[in-house]
Amino acid sequence: MTDELPPAETPSGEPQAPASNKRGLGHFLLKQILPWLITIGCFAFLYTRIAGPAKGAGMSVPAYLGSVFADVNWLAWLALMIPYSLFFFAIDSLIVWRVIGWFNAKVAYRDILPVRASTYILSIINEQVGKGAMALYLYRREGVPGWKLGSSMLFIMVCELLYLCAWANIGLFLQYDTLPTVFHALPWVGLGIVTLFVIAYLYFRGMILPDLAWRDRHLFHAFKQASLGQYGLILLLRSPALLAAVVVYSEAIALFGVDISYLQMLGLLPVIFFGASIPGPFRAVAISMWVILVPEYPAEMSAFGLVQHNFFILFNAVIGLCFVRRVQREVFN
Q1: Residue 294 clears pLDDT 80, i.e. is over it
Q2: Helices (H), the chain
Q3: I need a surface site. Which of 65, 233, 261, 275 has the fewest CB within 10 A?
Q4: Which of 287, 289, 297, 286 shows the shortest CA–CA distance to 256?
């Protein structure tokens, strides 16, 4: 078997042009320029929110932010973040292992750990590159086609949406009067998501719209097979990571001089994680959301969001470096 696949052919038998040649300017702008524009806009917003308190303290914005960083006990912060990052890695790998075992191939959990860790390195550059590396790894090891893995990754993303929505509404129920009023729309958002999920589930299981053949596309392979119990199990397996994050983020934010209770954090964090999933450098959307949701402390929340989300990404990449030699050996040798 060669490492390269022959180019696809048109019905006339002529080689089809590579897909990359068909991508237009609009696709380039969407994938490359738009995330940077969003990031620039977010940091401009943060600057305007910090400028007022900084002026009141007779300091420039960088100096004011520097004073916030100087007051943090960084050893205590690292003592929170490093164990949490390792715990998240274990849970994240467990989710990938379980879903791949259901829909693709039986792979040992210990064999998923190296490739999942290595994708964290590539995901710093591009999330899709990281997923492509995992697809190549499973193809070389188990012969799993890329489209099957893509279907499994899409299944995980849908479960992520469902579990964040569920926990956001649980947090709202527990802290309805203390969360911003905009959160009161969460039940309606949740109702919409659940309604769409029920319709999609019934469709992919062939219970409604039987003549609509979209369900037969390769990308929906996992959704055709998935049962309600499998969706529920992924939500349960993922939940310990969120509950641990509630404790860690509440304790970490206190080191920046802001007190948020565990229950309040449970209401805030799922929504923040929605923002963190929006592509863009430095997780700028998530950082801006901290300032929007806790407006009384713009500098503290900006500093907290910046180090919290970006340390998590970089430390996960360090975990990946511990496994990269093994992955290179198994994929490229």
Answers
A1: yes
A2: 25-28, 34-56, 61-70, 74-103, 109-125, 127-142, 146-174, 186-204, 221-225, 228-254, 262-276, 284-293, 298-332
A3: 261
A4: 297
